[in-house]
Amino acid sequence: MYNVKSNVATEFISDEEILSTLEFAQKNKNNKKLINEILEKAKDCKGLSHKEAAVLLECDLEDETQKMYKLAKEIKQRFYGNRIVMFAPLYLSNYCVNGCTYCPYHHKNKHIRRKKLTQEEIKNEVIALQDLGHKRLALETGEDPVNNPIEYVLESIKTIYSIKHKNGAIRRVNVNIAATTVENYAKLKEAGIGTYILFQETYNKKAYEELHPTGPKHDYAYHTEAMDRAMDGGIDDVGMGVLFGLNLYKYDFVGLLMHAEHLEAAKGVGPHTISVPRIRPADDINPDEFTNAISDEIFQKIVAILRITVPYTGLIISTRESQKTREKVLELGVSQISGASCTSVGGYSEKEKEEDNSAQFDVNDDRTLDEIVNWLLEMGHIPSFCTACYREGRTGDRFMTLVKAGQIANCCQPNALMTLKEYLEDYASEDTKKKGEEVIRNEIPNIPNEKVRKVVLEHLEDLNEGKRDFRF
Ligand code: SF4
Ligand code: SF4
């Protein structure tokens, strides 16, 4: 029985509800009247239900799709302005006891080199990341209670925050580790993490169990209820996602939105971010086995409809996607991207030898961070290294209240300009610096509040003089 507030996975992600939603969407395929009513409602920026979103996803009329794209862009602009937040993943360990069929870290894979970074190696990785200009990381580890216990993750977070190399600093550590207990989530909160990220991979229970044949991750309920436990442990910001291409995408799309609705209804705060990874080639994984892979067109539609449906949630895209795809979806509401990512363990400080092969997936966008910053500037976005909200205590419902009131852009824009300036001073090439300075000059008059504008101008001067780390 579907119950959005239930704490039982199969009740808040009810298979019956998903199937009836898909049937409703199918019955209303290309129903222009209904689609236009939904789009009108979406213009209020208060979001849509999973049922309404499913109707939009089912639609394949070109003119209606273009309307969705236009609205998605407007909503992104209204809530977050033209800033794009930058981050990088940091792989700590690829030891894993699970048997996920789509991931090369699955425990039966014998030709991948297993690695776990020591604290000294983490230090080297963090210095390498700081030297690129990164301020925000997403920590990744496999699930292995012996090799990667929670104590190891906590110690690593401490190490990461402690390193200050030249003008560098990691100011926000998001954590993507396996589903765990309320006690462990409380420890992560205590360690000062930003967002707790956990992808559901697929919401279809049967498919989930087949894709995770062995290991603790096999337990669908424990995995699906993890966000509830994270919030019970005091973590305010959680990041969700499904791995598109594993199962039928429409089913997962509806499940994802029902999960978001559940968190909002049961915990009072929806997801802080949603990621939209698509399955990629990797060692010991045959992408041909995953025949549900989605086309670029459908992928773009998913991004745009998510933007319309959950306007308050950040949308993340990784280097799994090519430059071309990233360019497209940046126009459809993506608000955060990774750059210069290394998906192997220890790969930032030392280039991995071919035979070592510890990567989780092949990246599709292997440009340097400077090239990505340059490209974003050319497209009219402001690359942002901002980490201000969590450091200012703007998390959970405090953050959501500001976003819903349309006020967060008043913080995002000045913070983007100041952190971009930091990047330009410390890490950028000549060409990027020139473009960035120009963007900053052009953007200053767009800061609506005179007082804020004045403070930003002062801090830009401070940054010129070598001072660092300003924020609103
Ligand atoms: Fe392990 Fe995660 Fe890979 Fe599964 S997806 S094998 S849990 S690292
Ligand atoms: Fe993100 Fe907050 Fe910074 Fe905006 S001000 S970019 S929401 S951390």
From TrEMBL:
EC number in record: 4.1.99.19
InterPro entries: Aldolase_TIM (IPR013785), BATS_dom (IPR010722), FeFe-hyd_mat_HydG (IPR024007), rSAM (IPR007197), rSAM_sf (IPR058240), ThiH/NoCL/HydG-like (IPR034428)
Entry annotated with the keyword Metal-binding: yes
Keyword Lyase assigned: yes
Family annotation (SUPFAM superfamilies): Radical SAM enzymes
Broad enzyme group: lyase
Limits of the Radical SAM core domain: 82-312
Cofactor(s) of this protein: [4Fe-4S] cluster
Short name of one Pfam family: BATS
A GO molecular-function annotation: metal ion binding
Entry keywords, A to Z: 4Fe-4S, Iron, Iron-sulfur, Lyase, Metal-binding, S-adenosyl-L-methionine
NCBIfam families with a match to the protein in the record: rSAM_HydG
Protein name per UniProt: 2-iminoacetate synthase ThiH
Lineage: Bacteria, Bacillati, Bacillota, Clostridia, Eubacteriales
